[in-house]
Amino acid sequence: MSRKAILLDVLKEVVADLGQVFVTKDVSEDIRMKQAHLNLIDNIQYHGFVGGALSDHRAQLEIDEIKKHTSRGSRWKKIGLPPEVFTKSHSIKTSQPVPDLLRQGLLINEESNNSEIGPQYAQDNLLTSRMRKHQSWYRAHELHLPYGTGPGPNDTNSYGNMLTRVDGEAGRNFLTTEIFEVALDRLAQGSGVVEKYRLLHNMLSSQPMCFNLFGPLVRDHELAKNLLATIVPENFSEVIRVEIEWAPEPVTNYLNDHTAFDAFIEYWTEDGQLVGLGIETKLSEPFSQKAYDRPEYRRWMQHPDSPWNPDSWNKVQAIELNQLWRDHLLAVALRFQPKSIYNCVRLMLVYHPEDMNSARNFLNYKNLLRNNDDSMFSLSIDQIVDRWLSVVEKDEHKKWLRSFRKRYIELDLSKASI
Q1: Which residues are bridge partners to 298 per DSSP?
Q2: Distance CA 132, CA 162 (A)
Q3: N or C terminus of the chain: which is more exposed, having fewer CB within 10 Å?
Q4: What is the DSSP string of 23-92?
C-alpha cells in the first residue's frame, strides 16, 4: 500500500469542493475519500498517503503547499487566485476584542465569509467542522439569532453554534414548543447526565438532537406507536412510555456505573410481549475515548444467553467499541436481571449518514455478536426521518420532521455560506 493507491479522480472531486485554503485531513477525512479507499483508511499511514498524493498531483490539482506539519497535515492553497482572496479569508477585525483561542489559532473568524455565521473551531475534524458550520448557518438564517458563548456556562469564547443566554433559556434550541417543554420536564427531574447549558445552548450537541427527534413521542404515545412501527419488527398493541436520558435503578442491579440510554421506549406487542428499546444517538461527537471495564460488565457477558461470541471477551473493551459495548451491556442487563419484566430489550444506534466512524464501529462491533443475535441494530437519522415522514398525517408532524431534516440532514443548504 502506498500513495499510488489514492484515486486521482476522487482526489480532484474533493479538492474542487474545498475552500481556497485547506489542510490534508480536510481531504483525507472527506466521506467520499473514505468510501473510495475502504482498504486504506485503517492503515496508520492513510493520511500520509493522501498528503503524498496531493504533492504528487499538485500540478493537476492546481495547488501549492504553503505550510508543512500543521496539526492536521500540510496546508494547501489553490493557485491562480488574487492575493487579496487569501488575505481576506483569514482576516481578523482588530477593532473588536479577539478571544484568546483566536489568537492561538484555534478559532476561525468567519467575518469575511458571512458575519452572521460566527466563529468556528479550527481543530474540528471534517464531520464536526461541517456540522458546526451548518448549525451556525441554521441559527443565523433559519432562526435569525445572534451567536453566543461556550461550550460551557463559564466560557467566554464565541462560537457560531452557540445560542445566547436569553435565546437558550427561551428554548430556541428546540424545533417546537412542546419539545422544549419536554426538555424542561426532564431537567426538573434532576437525575442522570442531562447538562442544562449544553442542552439549552449548544446546537452542535447530540443531546438536543435526541430531544428534537424523540421528544414529541414522550407525550403522544399514539404517535410513538405509529412511528416506532417503521423501525422495529413487532406488531404493537400499546406504547407504555418514552423516556429521554434514562437508566434503570438501582444501578447496583445492572452495571453499577453511570451508563444510560439517550432515549428509551417501552411497549407491548400484540402477542403480549413487553419490549424495551434503548437508544444511543450520535451527531458529530466521537465515541468515548476511554476504555472502561469492571466485574459487573463481565457478569453479563457470562450469562447463558449472552449475545457475544466466545472469542469476543478481550475485543469488546477496545477504545473504539467500549461505549457501544457498555450501552449494549445495559440492554442485556435490563433483559436478564433476575427480576426483569421484559421479554426482549434491544439497543438502537442512531447516527448521522456522513458519520463513517460510527457506521464502521457498529459493523466491527456486530462482528463480535452471535450470528442470530437481534439485540442490537442501527439506523441513520435520514433513514428514520424518511420512514416517519412516510406515515405521519398531521401537518404539525410533517412540519416537525421537515424542520429536523433541514437542521440536521440537509447540509448542502449551508454550503454556499461556507
Answers
A1: none
A2: 9
A3: N
A4: EHHHHHTSHHHHHHTTTTTTSTTHHHHHHHHHHHTHHHHTEEEEEEEEBTEEEEEESS--HHHHHHHT--
Distance CA 56, CA 4 (A): 9
Beta strands in 131-218 (DSSP E): 147-149, 158-163
Phi, psi of 32 (to 5 degrees): -70, -40
- Enter the pTM of the model: 0.76
Centre a 10 Å sphere on the Cβ of residue 233 and count the other Cβ atoms it contains.
9
Placement of cell 481531504 in the chain: 27
Domain boundaries, the chain: 3-84, 91-172, 215-404
Instruction: Decide the pairing of beta strands 376-380 and 274-281.
Output: unpaired
Q: Could you give the C-alpha distances from 111 to 70, 103, 412, in angstroms and in order?
A: 23, 15, 21
- Measured at the alpha carbon of residue 182, what is the angle toward residues 269 and 151, in degrees to the nearest 5? 120
Q: Please tell me the number of Cα atoms within 13 Å of 285 on its side-chain side.
A: 16
CA dist., res. 296 & res. 354, Å (int): 34
Find out whether 239 and 230 touch, Cβ atoms under 8 Å.
Answer: no
- pLDDT tier, 417 (very low <50, low <70, confident <90, very high otherwise): low
Fold of 3-84: Arc Repressor Mutant, subunit A (1.10.10)
What's the Cα-to-Cα distance from 267 to each of 35, 190, 224, 238, 387, rounded to whole Å? 38, 25, 10, 6, 19
